[in-house]
Amino acid sequence: MKSKQIQKIAADVRRSVSRKYGFRQSSYINFKVDSGYFFCLSFLTDEARLTVKPLYADDLWWDIWDASENKKEPMSLRGTGVYSLSGQVLATYDIKGTTDKSKLENQFEQVFNDATAAITMFIADNPDADLFYPDESKMDHDPDRLLYLMALIHNDKKDDALAIIREARKNKNRCMFQSGIFSDSYTSISRWCKREQAIIQIRNVFVSIFNNIVKIRAYALMALGRNNKKDTMPGSYDVRLLDGGIVTALCLSIIFLWHNFTLVWIILAVYFIFVWFTDFGKWSERYYIRFGKLPDKTRLRWKIGMWILVVALYIFSFAIIFFER
Q1: Key word Membrane present in the record (predicted)?
Q2: What is the domain range of residue 102?
Q3: Positive or negative torsion for Cα 261, 262, 265, 270
Q4: Is-contact 92 145, C-beta < 8 A?
Q5: How far is Cα 165 from Cα 169, in angstroms, rounded to an integer?
């Protein structure tokens, strides 16, 4: 009997048995997804090797490696793909060559039964795939520690991942995955981690600017009031006085100086959305309270400064109307 025929018989028997245990088959592997993990039985020449990795690991790696299109491919690619991550070995099983279907069936029954038991035990010990870190002493050939790096990045420990890469660079480690002459898997991971950090930094800058604007407006509103330390909210008159002065000055400037009514409507919309978000969203409350805790001299300076500003805004508005008549 030819080797291809023998392989086909074994594959058919393996497929039939694996289905009873919830495994799917593709080429030389059988796999199943359970509790957020990808379990893979790889059938080699004389053994079957059961490995595991979090289901998110390949998706994250493909995003980093700029191969996101792989996520649209069949699930089996996680076990057979060239750019798929290696898993942690849970168990290995001896496979004896035979052409006897009954012996093959018994052999595969034993393998899948034992593998199912190993999977059940593993999930009991590691119920949360998001918190799983692989035992690197049991990895199925992962010299670049990619699965461990994915676990670190997934759990927002990017600094730890970058530290591992720096150490590997010092040791002149050559990555298994290369991209061009000067780029490899570590290059992509470093770029990804730093990109994420840059996004967070940009976000923090915008949040800081927004908070400062909210703070200034809140202090200004409180300063226009009676300057009572016990006040925790500005009066409605003070709100109308400040907001009315700002909006009036802006809108009249645009109407009479630039003759742009569209921009006026945009500014009105943006300003009132901002006011609604800060006031009704209770974003300003903490600053109202903080203002009352400021030293008396500081609150007095705010009061004088804000009244000067409000008066100046209304004088400016009346001046525009008067001179543009």
Answers
A1: yes
A2: 3-129
A3: negative
A4: no
A5: 6
The predicted-structure confidence for 134-172, as pLDDT tens digits, reads as follows 999 999 889 999 999 999 999 999 999 999 999 999 988
Residue with tokens 């020449």: 45
Asked if residue 169 is part of any domain, the answer here is no
Task: Tell me if 250 is assigned to some domain.
Answer: yes
Domain termination residue (choose one: 111, 129, 147): 129
- Please tell me the total count of domains within the chain: 2
Cβ burial of 43 (10 Å; 0-12, 13-18, 19+) is buried
Amino acid 68 reads S
CB 215 within 8 A of CB 294: no
For 22: left if phi > 0, alpha if psi spans -120 to 50, otherwise beta; the answer is left
The pTM score is: 0.66
Alpha carbon distance 3, 90 (integer Å): 30
**What type of residue sits at position 75?**
M
| Residues 209 and 120 placed together within one structural domain of the fold | no
| Phi, psi angle pair for 199, to nearest 5° | -65, -45
